[in-house]
UniProtKB/TrEMBL annotation:
This is Regulator of G protein signaling 9 binding protein. The chain crosses the membrane at residues 218-241. It comes from Poecilia reticulata (Guppy). It comes from the Eukaryota. Keywords: Membrane, Signal transduction inhibitor, Transmembrane, Transmembrane helix. InterPro entries: RGS7BP/RGS9BP. GO terms for biological process: negative regulation of signal transduction. Belongs to the RGS7BP/RGS9BP family. PANTHER family: R-SEVEN BINDING PROTEIN (R7BP) HOMOLOG.
């Protein structure tokens, strides 16, 4: 079970790295090195996704799987499928921006104000001490069109994988809920402090609110007595002068 959890966690980390790198496409930090890092991260994510999909599908289709393990597999399934959809969205985003912004025309890059690269982030996500970076800074002829064609094929593969997942295993995401103390959501220190301050304020305001209530009651009582006195006076005047 520990091994089955490690790969989905690694996949989430790689997909998060790809999302971070994809946010730089078309900006002033976009470069041939960034596109190469995106390619390596994307390949790693797809390799992990294929292994995880086969592993989870085989377990969830097993009718003899115990209920406890099935619930755990369903949690991993929901996390993995959501992660796969995020990867698909980011791949489509990179493909669309790559078709609009070309590395050959540096003037078309958007000056976002960011500086530096993302090699360290990508290397940690790929578990590589040194990321294999592009050996040349010049853009080879036809590389961008070739990369776009490759990404289109990879996006279609992700589409088929998502469809196969939904066809082979019917896991209703809105019915899958985490259980156990490890999924509890305790109050943070900030929330606890806020609750403590709120209770103190309520305790301090309680004594001051009581006199206000008493004053309002006295005012209503005096008003009723005044109305009664005026009514009695008018009744007597009518009786004596009629």
């Amino acid at each position: 079970m520990t091994q089955s959890k490690s790969k989905p966690k690694s996949n989430c980390k790689v997909v998060a790295c790809y999302r971070h790198l994809a946010s730089c496409v078309g900006g002033c930090t976009d470069s041939l090195q960034l596109r190469d890092e995106l390619r390596q991260t994307r390949e790693k994510a797809q390799k992990l996704a294929g292994d995880i999909c086969h592993h989870l599908t085989s377990h969830l289709r097993d009718k003899s799987l115990p209920d406890g393990q099935r619930k755990e597999m369903e949690l991993l399934w929901v996390a993995f499928s959501s992660c796969l959809e995020l990867l698909h969205v980011d791949m489509c985003k990179v493909l669309n921006i790559s078709g609009i912004v070309s590395l050959a025309d540096s003037a078309s890059l958007v000056h976002t104000g960011l500086e530096g690269g993302c090699s360290d982030v990508a290397a940690r996500a790929l578990s590589l001490p040194n990321l294999n970076q592009a050996q040349t800074d010049s853009l080879p002829a036809g590389l961008e069109s070739q990369e776009c064609n490759t990404m289109e094929l990879e996006i279609s593969q992700i589409d088929r994988m998502i469809d196969d997942m939904e066809m082979k295993v019917n896991v209703l995401r809105w019915l899958v809920e985490p259980h156990g103390p490890q999924y509890a959501d305790p109050l943070s220190s900030t929330d606890s402090a806020s609750m403590a301050l709120l209770s103190i304020d309520e305790e301090q305001q309680a004594p001051t609110s009581q006199p206000l209530c008493q004053r309002s009651h006295i005012f209503v009582l005096l008003l009723l007595l005044g109305v009664f006195f005026v009514a009695a006076t008018l009744s007597l005047c009518i009786f004596f002068f009629s």
